[in-house]
Amino acid sequence: MTRRLTLRVTGGSAEVSQAQATLVAWLEEDDADPRTIARAELLVEEIALNALDHGQARGVTIAATRDEDGLGLVFEDDGGAFDPTTAPLPDLERALEEATIGGRGLVLLRKLATALRYERTAEGHNRLSMTLS
């Protein structure tokens, strides 16, 4: 049986934190693996805050589905076009003093998610889909 949850975030970090808490409680009801819960919580924070802060999105919709194959997450926002699946990664080999700000979330996203897919919808929205298994 597939379970579904949809969350909408239009504000800043406090609203993102509430979405995280709701998602965590929903996953705990289903006895999800603690590792999956932690990864999902981190991804919600990273993706939603970046869309709101850097992409100037007015809102982010987070759709979660849970079935025997794992957890699916779809993030959709109305911000500027940004494909995190092809954006260049930062040079992580640089010394701390030489490191630039930004891009570390891309590394996290690509390491934590599987079946990562981006599309720009006909409505001009970013849609990022992933599976956590």
Automatic annotation (TrEMBL):
Molecular functions (GO terms): protein serine/threonine kinase activity
Keyword Lipoprotein carried by entry: no
A Pfam family per the record: HATPase_c_2
Database matches in InterPro entries: Anti-sigma-factor_SerPK (IPR050267), HATPase_C_sf (IPR036890), HATPase_dom (IPR003594)
Domain Histidine kinase/HSP90-like ATPase span(s) in chain numbering: 14-131
Keywords: Kinase, Serine/threonine-protein kinase, Transferase
CDD domains: HATPase_RsbW-like (cd16936)
Gene3D superfamilies: Histidine kinase-like ATPase, C-terminal domain
Superkingdom of this protein's organism: Bacteria
Protein name: Anti-sigma regulatory factor (Ser/Thr protein kinase)
